[in-house]
């Protein structure tokens, strides 16, 4: 299995982007799916996770209220809607599957290659 991210790009502060995580070889309904990001010179951080069972969403505090994760079972894709973007959101964004159902806090699999988000005026 593999995940493929898309939707990144250059956006001005205050703008919006929607990232997509398309799953191949596995069903997003059967796994928690997480979005992560890594900015230059920083460690990778967990941004958001959607639980497989009930679709419950969790967010890191810096994006709560601005980002929204969602799942489209028919398209086997998970999205990350990002609003009110800030320069601090600049990073490569990755998605991955959570087969152990740890709320995306460990044991992630099927990492994608990432999509670059740049927030700049």
Can you tell me about this structure?
The chain has 121 residues and is mainly beta. The protein contains no helices and ten strands. It has strands spanning 2-6, 9-11, 17-24, 32-38, 45-50, 57-59, 67-72, 77-82, 91-98, 115-119. The radius of gyration is 13 Å and the shape is globular. It starts with a strand and ends with a strand.
Structural class: mainly beta
Helix content: under 10%
Radius of gyration: 13 Å
**Backbone shape:** globular
Largest sheet: 6 strands, mixed
What is the H-and-E element order? EEEEEEEEEE
- Within the largest sheet, what's the order of strands? 2-10-9-4-5-6
Uncertain regions: pLDDT < 50 for 5+ in a row?
Answer: none
Number of discrete helical segments = 0
Alpha-carbon distance between the two ends: 37 Å
Jot down its keywords.
121 residues; mainly beta; six-stranded mixed β-sheet; four-stranded antiparallel β-sheet
Outline the fold blueprint.
Elements: E1 2-6, E2 9-11, E3 17-24, E4 32-38, E5 45-50, E6 57-59, E7 67-72, E8 77-82, E9 91-98, E10 115-119
Parallel strand pairs: 2-10
Antiparallel strand pairs: 1-3, 3-8, 4-5, 4-9, 5-6, 7-8, 9-10
State the gist of this model.
The chain has strands at residues 2-6, 9-11, 17-24, 32-38, 45-50, 57-59, 67-72, 77-82, 91-98, 115-119. The protein has 121 residues and is an all-beta fold.
